Amino acid sequence: AMIFGIFIGATLFSFVFRSLGGDDLVIGLVQGLGLGSWGLLLLIMAIVFFLGFFFDWIEITLIVLPVFAPVIQLLDFGDHVAKFELTYWFAILLAVNLQTSFLTPPFGFALFYLKAVAPEGVKIQQIYRGIIPFVVLQLVGLGLVMAFPEIALWLPRTLLN
Fold this sequence. Notes:
Layout: H1 2-19, H2 22-33, H3 36-51, H4 57-74, H5 86-101, H6 109-117, H7 124-130, H8 132-147, H9 150-160
């Protein structure tokens, strides 16, 4: 029931946000920044990564995506990513980024799962220090998918053709 409450609340938020012209407000704000497509993509990924410290993937997906959806449609990466593949590529980038949030303190769920099965002498601070290489690896993977979109787009291309 709680998850359905989140879905309903997020859907209502999105509806009200778009009905009140929130799309135009966000697009105007983003265009005013003058970051370009790459700068904007990095900003969105940084925001999602930061929100992963405090929110679960469900909240991030249901609240943040409706805000950034009109902005994503404006991105243009030229020959790097075709316009019709941009949505798939962004979704995969977002999924990799959200996966990292399971490992980031203070509310990384995987950290609490690990603490629950760890021996009694292991402190949560030790687990926090131990996940640093894994977060770095996931960020490297995110960078690779950004730099080489073929890594992520091979399967959608195969299934759609």
